[in-house]
Amino acid sequence: IQVFDLSELQNSLTSLLKFLKMSFHGGTDVTPALTHALQQLKHKDYKRADVVVVSDFVMPSLAKGVLTQIHGQKQTGTRFHSVVIGGGDHGSALEIFDTEWRFQNDWSSLIKSTLLSQRSKYN
Questions:
Q1: What pTM, to 2 d.p., does this model score?
Q2: CA-CA distances (angstroms) from residue 45 to 21, 23, 61, 65, 90?
Q3: In this structure, are strands 112-115 and 99-103 parallel, antiparallel, or unpaired?
Q4: Mean pLDDT of 46-57
């Protein structure tokens, strides 16, 4: 996984853009990234943090333990956001996220945001 901590002052817009240009050319297993984020949320400095995952979200379902931890964090006020790269159906992979931004890299599309928080309150 690659982590970009937006709270660190030394991170500049240039660093963020470099991070967002990364590509891993393989299947997505978001479990290690979410596990890392869930561990970070236990630290005092991250108690009020949100989580943003950037992916194509073509992936298997998350393990029940990870889902349970995510739902527990949501109870404390943590929000989970997704930035979806590319089109297509992503099935249940996106159900855990409160907000979803979709980006399709073509001339006719724009980034569009969908608030999913009402749905996630009941999951």
A1: 0.74
A2: 27, 29, 30, 24, 32
A3: antiparallel
A4: 88
